[in-house]
Amino acid sequence: MTATNAGRPPDEELTARILRTTVDIVFEVGYDQLRIEHVAKRVGCGKTAIYRRFPDKGELVVAAAMSIMHLGDIPDTGDVVEDLLQHTRINVENQNLTRLRDGSTNAIAAALDPAVFPVLWDRFFRLRRENGFRVIERAVERGQIAPDTDPDLLLDTLASITFYRSTVRGIGVKTEQYRWLVQTLVANPPRVSPGS
């Protein structure tokens, strides 16, 4: 560990510790009970060190969430089924990062909090969505899926089964189940309604 001349850890190291600690506390007590002073005390820094980096609790939690989730690349295997499977696996990995700890749903509730979700959507989930759209656009260009496929509904179907089975039921989805679902959706995709 390298310290600055003042004996303080470098900015990047301190920021990483703040984010890791925030993740831990959110899992423990949830968004509502999270306090900046609790993060500062556990990290061993002043509240001002946190506020210099993150103007409020919502921004802190967004940054903490983004520090553990992966945006991922846009899969391009040449096969739409495999591309959608790879895209979905990244969703599963991200979902698993917020899996229940000791039966708690605190991390999921924090991500859905009105002070967090719009920002998290804009900075992360929207970009994940755009990756999925690009997979489907390429598949249409290659003639691998119907041109009137509704990409929004197709991606929602894959994301919702991941969320429901992992979060609500706690049982997950097996790879062969995803493969069957993706093959079914590619063979008979949801279609864009006329005039929509």
Descriptive report:
This protein has 196 residues and is an all-alpha fold. The protein has two domains: 57 residues, Arc Repressor Mutant, subunit A (Orthogonal Bundle), CATH 1.10.10; 89 residues, Tetracycline Repressor, domain 2. The protein contains nine helices and no strands. Helix 5 packs parallel to helix 8. The radius of gyration is 20 Å and the shape is elongated. The chain starts with 10 loop residues before the first helix and ends in a 9-residue tail after the last helix. The N terminus is likely disordered.
What's this, in brief?
With 196 residues, this protein is mostly helical. The chain is 65% helix and 0% strand.
What are the low-pLDDT stretches, counting only 5+ consecutive residues below 50? 1-5
CATH class of the largest domain: Mainly Alpha
Figure out the total of helices. 9
CATH fold field value of the largest domain: Tetracycline Repressor, domain 2
Major β-sheet, in short? none
Q: Report the CATH architecture of the largest domain.
A: Orthogonal Bundle
Q: Percent of residues in helical segments?
A: 55-70%
CA(first)-CA(last) distance: 57 Å
Overall residue-averaged pLDDT value: 90
Q: How big a fraction of the residues is strand?
A: under 5%
Class from secondary-structure proportions:
mainly alpha
Q: Would you identify the CATH H-level superfamily of the largest domain? A: Tetracycline Repressor, domain 2
Work out the count of structural domains.
2
Q: Radius of gyration in whole Å, from Cα?
A: 20 Å
Overall geometric form: elongated
The beta-strand count equals 0
- The ordered H/E elements are HHHHHHHHH
